[in-house]
């Protein structure tokens, strides 16, 4: 159903650029994974440097890959639009209400007890604040910056005409888009995990991470070095122990769940919502046969092991990227160790 939500949606695909020999190998392997799962050239393909530059001219590009299966979007506008759509359909949205504990069929909140035939757990990064979900998810922060609107000369120089989203093949994830008002919105991981899976508004700002994002932005787009950074923000993602999203429901359909999106929730939540609708109503469908339905991730380790492990992963990721950028060779041992942490 088209709800007519204006969220600056533009399906331009995703360009992944490779800027070192190690990134070359990861880019080739990523497309190889798509082939393994039966996805052909119409879903992803390798690109030469010239083909990458024709899309977006990123400094240091060697080669890359492209998939059309992605769109630029303003997620805040989408969230507001969805809330309005729910209310138009007769739903009610209650904000500023803390969920304190839950059981099948009911939730205790800061405003009282809520009962329903089916309770859906969809707290994502905030799951650890509910005692029953303490170790199901950890909050990993992702931060973003945005430039001032950039000049026509800048865009003429680098291209970026078709709304592609952008990333490269480093281990510490970065991502970018050209916004509807001609800014570069540039984000990435790297902010610290906080002991006990704590979440605070103050954690949305980490100036060391913001500086690293600005450095990465200028490395990729040197002609943006004089552009003012007008916005800085962030928030936590929900990460399960095996890094696999899931959706499911218990036997008597009194308790359902969806989550663990690891930053890919804009589209995955849509799929989860449609799947939950079938699960809750008892409707068997192709969606309810998907492999993520009913998947149960194991719990995260207790503290301080959780804090030590996640902090170690962050340090290892930064170390891999720094070493590979300096030596132009893959950090094979550290990559294997990191893969063992993430289960990939």
Structure notes:
With 344 residues, the chain is of the alpha+beta class. The protein folds into two domains: 14-71 and 139-239 and 304-342, D-Amino Acid Oxidase, Chain A, domain 2, CATH 3.30.9; 75-137 and 241-289, FAD/NAD(P)-binding domain (3-Layer(bba) Sandwich), CATH 3.50.50. It contains eight helices and 14 strands. The protein has helices at residues 21-36, 49-55, 75-88, 152-158, 207-220, 265-281, 305-327, 332-342; strands spanning 14-18, 45-48, 63-67, 99-103, 106-109, 112-115, 119-121, 138-147, 165-168, 174-178, 184-188, 229-239, 246-249, 255-259. It has an eight-stranded mixed β-sheet with strand order 2-3-1-9-10-11-8-12, with helices on both faces. Strands 4-5-6 form a three-stranded antiparallel β-sheet, with no helix packed on it. A three-stranded mixed β-sheet has the order 7-14-13, with helices on one face. A hairpin with a 5-residue loop joins strand 10 (174-178) and strand 11 (184-188). Helix 7 runs antiparallel to helix 8. It is globular and about 55 Å long. 27% of the residues are buried.
């Amino acid at each position: 159903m088209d709800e007519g939500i204006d969220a600056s949606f533009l399906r331009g695909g995703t360009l992944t650029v490779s800027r070192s020999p190690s990134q070359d190998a990861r880019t080739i392997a990523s497309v190889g994974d798509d082939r393994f799962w039966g996805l052909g050239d119409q879903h992803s393909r390798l690109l030469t440097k010239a083909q990458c530059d024709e899309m977006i001219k990123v400094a240091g590009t060697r080669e890359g890959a492209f998939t059309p299966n992605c769109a630029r979007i303003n997620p805040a506008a989408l969230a507001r639009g969805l809330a309005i759509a729910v209310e138009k359909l007769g739903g009610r949205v209650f904000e500023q209400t803390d969920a304190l504990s839950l059981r099948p069929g009911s939730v205790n909140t800061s405003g009282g007890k809520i009962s329903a035939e089916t309770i859906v757990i969809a707290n994502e990064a905030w799951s650890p604040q509910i005692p029953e979900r303490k170790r199901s998810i950890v909050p990993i922060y992702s931060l973003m910056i945005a430039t001032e609107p950039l000049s026509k000369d800048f865009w003429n120089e680098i291209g970026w005409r078709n709304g592609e989203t952008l990333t490269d093949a480093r281990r510490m994830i970065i991502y970018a888009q050209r916004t509807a008002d001609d800014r570069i919105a540039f984000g990435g991981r790297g902010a610290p995990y906080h002991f006990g899976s704590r979440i605070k508004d103050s954690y949305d700002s980490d100036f060391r991470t913001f500086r690293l994002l600005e450095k990465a932005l200028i490395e990729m787009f040197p002609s943006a070095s004089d552009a003012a950074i007008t916005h800085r923000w962030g928030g936590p993602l929900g990460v399960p122990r095996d890094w696999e999203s899931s959706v499911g429901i218990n036997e008597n359909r009194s308790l359902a769940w969806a989550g663990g999106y690891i930053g890919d929730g804009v589209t995955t939540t849509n799929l989860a919502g449609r799947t939950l609708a079938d699960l809750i109503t008892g409707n068997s469908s192709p969606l309810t046969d998907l492999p993520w339905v009913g998947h149960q991730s194991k719990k995260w380790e207790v503290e301080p092991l959780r804090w030590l492990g996640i902090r170690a992963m962050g340090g290892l990721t930064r170390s891999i990227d720094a070493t590979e950028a300096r030596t132009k060779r893959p950090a094979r041992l550290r990559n294997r160790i990191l893969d063992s942490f993430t289960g990939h």
